Amino acid sequence: MSHLTGDPKRHDLSSFKGSITGSCLCGSITVTINENLFTKPRGHLCHCENCRKATGSVVATNLTIEEKKVDIKDRDGTLKLYADKATKSGNPVYRYFCAVDGNPIFSKVDSMPGKVTISMGCMPVIPKPEMAGFTAHKHPWFNQPEGIRSYKIIREEEIMGE
Ligand SMILES: [Zn+2]
């Protein structure tokens, strides 16, 4: 990752019409989403405590998509799974991360078969999210982007386990 490609404004979004590829910090794991993500707002922010811990951030930037549209390559065999059972519903969130650098890569829940939620921080450009979940737990100093739908607690069947 060079300092040039680290600036999302330097990327021509038309180069991501067919797909977009990101990687973890050490480069072992690459994630390719085979869809144009930049035609409309996509994905969701999550303000839940578990996502904050798992991402080390004030909010998680997630995008839930059909698994068949995603290619994940694990060059050095560093992809590890943590079954997060400390959820409100008791249903586990299966959190996959790179064991070398700790980067969150994606998560899955049993209630959404065939879907995967990508941790979008790995991508060179993150599309503007269409919604935000767990806004009841949002930090008061964090300004939600304008025009995105908010859910106090995300509906499990729609996004991910609570
Ligand atoms: Zn890595």
Automatic annotation (TrEMBL):
Organism: Aureobasidium vineae
SUPFAM superfamilies per the UniProt record, alphabetical: Mss4-like
Gene3D superfamilies from the UniProt entry: glutathione-dependent formaldehyde- activating enzyme (gfa)
Family: Belongs to the Gfa family.
Stated name of the protein: CENP-V/GFA domain-containing protein
Pfam families associated with the record: GFA
Gene Ontology MF terms: carbon-sulfur lyase activity; metal ion binding
Chain ranges of the CENP-V/GFA domain: 20-152
Entries under InterPro entries matching the protein: CENP-V/GFA, Mss4-like_sf
Keywords per UniProt: Lyase, Metal-binding, Zinc
Highest taxon, organism lineage: Eukaryota
